[in-house]
Specification:
By secondary structure, this protein is mainly alpha-helical. The chain is built from 16 helices and two strands. Helix 3 (about 45-60) packs antiparallel against helix 16 and helix 4 packs antiparallel against helix 6.
Length: about 300
């Protein structure tokens, strides 16, 4: 299957699973539940689930066994976007070409939406009735996602990003911020798929870990680049927000040309790790190419 076809198939799978997992709309929660659907089903590339399923091909886990894991990690990502857009955070008005959740439903509801999506992710993992995985495996998956999304992962990265690096900014400090803020959840997508196979070979696990780290940083470098040169209509959000918020980014620290070189270098590192996994790593390699070629 070609990469584009595989991706389209994954997007459909994830959309179906998310619709099944979200609470049904009802009059009693006339604001909250519609806002949940709005935040989760309002488009999105589904990169994290794609990464999970592509890794599943490597470790030979059936796609059906990964559906609930994919929904859980996408719910965490969706919650993070809702909270990141809030006035107290990045203060963004547009997401995916539509008003951000707090603009459409109010700040209080947006906060509750983020809370509900985060807890729903762990409810799905804890209440999985499929019996595809042992209780020990599921516990490890819950721990993996919790660590990647909480105060030792994504939330820590957001805190470091908000604190800024106005005093002696450096590439090392910037990399540290984004290994947590963006990289942790992308790496978790790889790690969760790995946890589906308890007999994963050490060399295979090593290549996957190298891939996850490189792809996480490559994604953020390209995000920073697109905030400078991206097309607002294609991106569906404001351009130049990093500069407006006086954030240190890869282009502001290295210059645009060197930031592009770094993105390419990281993509090539990820592709090398994917290729070392054999033919099953083809989708991971294609994803690594896309990450730095994307315009959205």
């Amino acid at each position: 299957m070609k990469f584009e076809s595989f991706w389209a198939h994954i997007q459909n799978r994830v959309a179906t699973e998310l619709r099944q997992q979200l609470p049904a709309l009802e009059s009693e929660t006339e604001t909250l539940y519609p806002a949940l659907h709005y935040a989760v089903l309002n488009g999105g590339k589904r990169i994290r689930p794609l990464l999970l399923y592509a890794t599943g091909l490597v470790v030979q886990t059936p796609l059906a066994h990964l559906d609930k894991l994919a929904a859980a990690i996408e719910l965490i990502h969706s919650y993070s976007l809702v909270h990141d857009d809030l006035p107290a955070m990045d203060n963004d008005d547009v997401r995916r070409g539509q008003p951000t959740c707090h603009r459409a439903f109010g700040e209080a509801t947006a906060i509750l939406v983020g809370d509900a999506l985060q807890t729903l992710a762990f409810e799905i993992l804890a209440n999985d009735q499929t019996n595809y995985f042992t209780a020990t495996q599921r516990l490890r998956m819950i721990y993996c996602l919790a660590k990647a999304s909480g105060g030792q992962g994504m939330v820590k990265g957001q805190a470091l990003d908000m604190a800024g690096m106005k005093n002696a900014p450096s590439l090392e400090k910037l990399e540290r911020v984004h290994l947590y803020k963006t990289g942790a959840l992308l790496q978790a997508s790889v790690n969760l798929a790995g946890l589906t196979q308890p007999t994963l070979e050490p060399k295979q696990a090593e290549h996957l870990a190298e891939y996850g780290r490189a792809i996480g940083l490559a994604y953020q470098v390209q995000d920073d680049i697109l905030d400078v040169i991206g097309n607002k209509a294609l991106l569906g959000k404001r351009i130049g927000s990093d500069q407006d918020n006086q954030k240190i980014t890869y282009p502001s620290l290295l210059g645009l040309a060197k930031a592009k070189q770094l993105a390419t270098q990281l993509s090539q590192q990820a592709q090398a790790s994917a290729n070392a996994l054999g033919p099953q790593g083809q989708m991971l390699a294609e994803l690594a190419k896309y990450i730095v070629q994307r315009v959205v």
